Amino acid sequence: MSALLEKHIVELLQDRDEKAISLLYEHYGDTLFGVANKVVRDENLAQDVLQESFVKIWKKSDSYDPSKAKLFTWLFRITRNTAIDKLRSVNTKSDKEIQIDVSDVYNLGVNSIRPELIDVRENLEKIEEKYQIVLEALFFQGMTQQEASDELDIPLGTIKSRLKIGLRELKKIYVSIILFALILNINELI
Fold first, then answer.
1. Is residue 35 within 8 Å of 80, Cβ to Cβ?
2. Distance, first Cα to last Cα, the chain
3. 105-189: which CATH number, 3.40.640.10, 1.10.10.10, 3.40.980.10, 3.40.50.2300?
């Protein structure tokens, strides 16, 4: 790519002109797809990564600084980081699948726990709003931590901290509910 064309694309990006995205896709799409595919090793997933990357590139277009990095380096980093986030997200989801039919969880007291008492959305409202927002984005909207960071305009480290603290607060609520149910069961047996 000529320096003149690259400069033109950068100007279009900084002016938020949609022509920039078509030019970027035309000149860098195949290469960026290759970057994504090398990380995720799945063509369909790589297509998703490429699409998410172009959305991020568009949203962050005003943050590109030609004095800090070449255009391709900037595009490469966004695509590579998006691919890594996607790979982590896919791996995390598959690692956390629950095999209910082979579960050996001891069910003492389950009959006395009323479903309305353990409604996640209802109990989510019992924790601070800053934690609610993060948990809502990650669990109910299915965003990755990076996507939540971008969408909510909150640093990734803060997203991770709020996730950890929010889950800890929810755990306290559920432990209380379970303990209460167990106490009810014991009282019924006496």
1. yes
2. 81
3. 1.10.10.10
The residue among 28, 21, 11 whose CA lies nearest residue 56 is: 21
Q: Is the pTM above the cut of 0.70?
A: no
Residue that has been written with the tokens 């297509």 in this structure: 47
pLDDT by residue (tens digit) across 27-42?
A: 999 999 999 999 999 9
Structural domain 3-95, CATH architecture = Orthogonal Bundle (1.10)
Residue bearing tokens 């353990």: 118
Domain boundaries, the chain: 3-95, 105-189
Contact 151, 133 (CB under 8 A): no
pLDDT of residue 103: 45
User: 10 vs 6, 59, 121, 184, CA distance in Å?
Assistant: 6, 14, 44, 66
